[in-house]
Amino acid sequence: MAAVSSPRIAHAIEKGSPHPLGATPGPEGVNFSLFTENATGVDLLLFEAHDSPAPYQTIRFDPFVNKTFHFWHAFVRGLQAGTHYAYRVDGPWDPAAGHRFNRNKVLIDPYARGNTESVWNRAAACGPEDNAATSMRSIVIDPSAYDWEGDRPLARPMEDTVIYEMHVRGFTRSPSSSVEHPGTFAGVIEKVPHLKDLGVTAVELLPVFDFDENSALRESDGRKLTNYWGYSLNSFFAPQSGYCVSPESGSHLREFRDMVKALHRAGIEVILDVVFNHTDEGNQLGPTFSFRGIDNRVYYFLVPWDLVECLRYWVREAHVDGFRFDEGSILARDENGCPCPHPPVVWQIELDEELADTKVIAEAWDAAGLYQIGHFPGDRWAEWNGRYRDDIRRFVRGDPGVVGNVASRLAGSADIYQQHGQLPVNSINFVTCHDGFTMNDLVSYDEKHNQANGEDNRDGINENLSWNCGSEGASDDPAVEALRERLIRNFAAILMLSRGVPMMLGGDEMRRTQRGNNNPYCQDNEISWYDWTLAEKNQGLHRFWKFMIEFRKRHAALRRGQFFSGAVNGRGLPAVAWHGTKLNSPGWTDPDARALGMTLAGFDGDPDIHVMMNMHWDALEFELPAISGREWRKAVDTAEQRPRDIGGETPVEGETCTVQARSVVVLVNG
């Protein structure tokens, strides 16, 4: 990073250019451009350091020289990358008309590539008084000064994707992670071998755009609770400063790029969870630090090309492979809040050439009640399939009469997507995610335990479709623990045997627990952090997840991008056949059915796969299909202990196979 110019020198100011927006360094200085439609004046503040109480130079933009239409701009000669800066913006105070200008507030650049919060005081940004000494500051960052070493987005086919959802800070923040820089992008790099060994092909990162992680939301039992998940953002172009080792030097983009490059070298894509439905400025009582003070009426009206420009930036400059849109259905509403049949934002993302190979995933609902699973606008958008989660949870905990729904989920949810001309890859299949129980807690708690959040256990959903296996919370009963691990193996097996795109919650491979908290949005502590001692303690479970991911990669029948059809392979097997304990009798109408079998035909030389799932509390005998010249071998048995649970491929003789209570058995031939 180039040294910052001496604060004792007053920089020469020139007209500058309205494009590009933000702070753009060059060999002779830095061009600044800010869009505001209703402002009457703009000041640019230059700070000597990230924690300077006052600017060393204030530059007043001349509206007759430094303004083009609604763009305020100036070129500061001699200024270099690494400079800390901010704005003051004049304009009308007329809340009824949507205007909330206040030149006392010091504002970060909406297009900044990095910000610092070392002197940030949230309370001081909420009142009308001047807050220069305790404001956030943006940093001039040069995106061209980086060696990608030939890296580029991986563009892996969607059907070959296995997603690992994780939180950057929580992944390595615990001392048990033993990384040099815990809780940072650099910390993730140190744990890339764990992800590569597991076999996942993509990480989906909870928000990494800049957000306020230090201000207390409230206190509970003497512990400060903060915005840990990061779903209230400060900026859309800047990586989170708290995830950087040295943000005060403007290392944000470099450190993020280093992480992306390391993950790409391991064959792992990077998908970002993005939030465009609100910012951390909140309602009229919240702080003013950027959008509200620059032009409240303009910046809080969604402009399609601005959003697309942000996505392009992360793909072009940071080599990001995809995006998951939080409460994505809000993008399908018009300016009056009504659902729109052809929302411009969604279709611009869909059709944008620069985003053509980028994965786009919607959380197909929003806080106002719009639920669009199966009919989110746009052809290539994938969706978090909440119906998959619910049906598989019910089945594995032993609910009767859901085998028809489970078959649909295993088959790629054709009942949801096929009628709209979509494909199995439009379904992101998951059992657990950040929002809810971990998989360990799903089999360890009947009720949520969110008291630590300080909301009297009112937050978080009440119906988790969970089962504690007979004991609430942690247990030292060997029988309870064995059953819990069996159920986790069931979930892992079913997830990896399903058509669609599997997503696992980070830490499920080691039985990470949140102590029954199903909404730890404010828990930047051991409740949310990964306990890496569990990786050793539960290495058998890690081994099982790893095997199932590899099994999925090895068998094309599990990953095909089309729904099952009437195709028959050379051995006379249809692409899929459904069974109960009796062949071809799946029990769709049996209200007590807790067993389901399926036979998947192998094509192009692949073996056939036969799956038997028994969620009854008693062992059941399943009939086996006879295939001439082929012998069934057991590849997976979730009722067995390591090492017999996977990989042995011992021959299965006879016309039937016993499947133990609450277990899954997978056979292969060939």
Polypeptide structure, described:
The chain has 670 residues and is of the alpha/beta class. It has a domain at 576-668: Golgi alpha-mannosidase II (Immunoglobulin-like), CATH 2.60.40.1180. The strands form seven sheets. An eight-stranded parallel beta barrel has the order 13-14-17-18-19-20-21-22. The chain has a six-stranded antiparallel sheet with strand order 23-24-25-30-27-28, covered by helices on one side. The longest helix has 20 residues, at 478-497. The chain is elongated.
Which short descriptors sum up this protein?
15 helices, 30 strands, six-stranded antiparallel β-sheet, Immunoglobulin-like, alpha/beta, 670 residues
CATH architecture of the domain at 576-668: Sandwich
Poorly predicted regions are 1-7
Report the C-alpha radius of gyration, rounded.
Answer: 27 Å
CATH superfamily descriptor of the domain at 576-668: Golgi alpha-mannosidase II
Q: Structural class given helices, strands, pairing?
A: alpha/beta
- The helicity comes to 10-25%
Average pLDDT confidence is: 95
- Main sheet specs: 8 strands, parallel, barrel
How are strands sequenced across the largest beta sheet?
13-14-17-18-19-20-21-22
Distance between the termini: 59 Å
Shape: elongated
The counted number of beta strands is 30
Number of helices: 15
Report the portion of residues in β strands. Answer: 15-25%
Name of the top-level CATH class of the domain at 576-668? Mainly Beta
CATH topology of the domain at 576-668: Immunoglobulin-like
